[in-house]
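Exercise 3.2. Students should predict the tertiary structure of the chain below and write it as structure tokens, then compare their answer with the key that follows.

Predict this chain's 3D structure.
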Amino acid sequence: MSLGLVYKNKKHIFDEIEKETPYLSYPLFEDTGLVNQGFSTRLGGVSKGYYASLNLSFDRGDRKEAVAENFRRIGNAIGVRCEDMVLSKQTHTTNVRIVTEEDRGKGIVRDRDYTDVDGLVTDVPGLCLVTTYADCVPLYFVDPVRKVIGLSHSGWRGTVGKIGRKTVELMHSRFGSDPGDILAAVGPSVCMECYEVSYDVIGRFKESFDEKYWDQLFYEKPDGKYQLDLWRANELIFLESGIDPEHIAVTNVCTHCNSKILYSHRASGDRRGNLCAFLALKK
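Answer key:
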């Protein structure tokens, strides 16, 4: 069941929900007819306790059998098989990996032979790119002309390092994608009002972004802390990468505001599971 990101001016969602495996998706991509795509919630799985219920992390102490069943359920809902998924190995880098047929199933049904990978790109139909989240920003990329896709994890470090731009550059250099053809989305993640940071983080953003954008990206509070807008920052990165403004969708769904149905590190700390973003070219 796709819920769609259609909640105008809302950060709180899902007063009631059906008892199946729901996920969020973008009409921007659905309209192409080229991809299976979605973003998981914490609903519709089999995990127990503070992992409840659709935890999609094998690394947080949950039962592996439960996580495997959760992946099977969300994959079935979105329309992809676990055997076709390829999972990132995120360490807040700006490294983007080309995913090939040889990677099919890695991180889900067989071991990964890579690490320090926060972005994935492929042109192989049927392969499903998967990245993990609990407040950080998922970035989706679909080139409907060259039939290339990308999916990248962008926390504040990835945003400062502009992993979104690096993903676009790799799609261009390896597969010939024209940035003007790419459709891109900023996925569910922590909103500006919920994302407090210290000046050392803001200092990095001042180095990375033109001063004319600072008032759009952050503001200082009386206590010397700052509120930071990762959504707008990644939208600006899309624009500077050459993506058409009409080809960009930006979430209005905050993981922290909706921590009852979306895992949030800021809300729960380590007592939580993980969400995942999924993106696959249809066969």
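Discussion points: Residues 64-78 form the longest helix (15 residues). Helices lie at 27-30, 64-78, 156-160, 163-175, 199-208, 214-217, 230-240, 265-268.
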